[in-house]
Amino acid sequence: MKTADLYDRFGEELQVAEPGLVHFGGETSFSGTIATVVAPEDNSLVRRALESPGRGRVLVVDGGGSRRVALLGDQLAALAVANEWSGVVVHGLIRDSLEIGEMPLGVLALGTIPRKTEKLGRGEADREVAFAGVTFRPGEFLVADPDGLVLSAAPPA
Q1: Is residue 40 part of a domain?
Q2: How many structural domains does the chain have?
């Protein structure tokens, strides 16, 4: 599924994310049903989500666009791969980008930083989050490739 082809077919039925997220994972094309986590400079709930079976889903992490700490690193990315997540989209930063780039996982984020987060258990899971001009809803469908990211209420037929 290419995002451009999906847009040509479905047009404004899709949400199209604004540019700004950068590919860091070994997979630059990925898709899946959305799961969400709000992670305010604390990746405790990111770990909890990625420890669960992914079943090809995409974890969307709303870090509020913080540029202070990394919400995903190689250890959490390895958990995502082991538990069969298709990808992780981070509205914030990651670290260990070279290692993540070798993994069979889609990862989009705003950038990188070496600083890790605190682990205080803050955040929320499975709620709507909005960034990049779109609203990510748990259970809806995400498709990402080198051209961008689109969202659909259901998997495109």
Answers
A1: yes
A2: 1
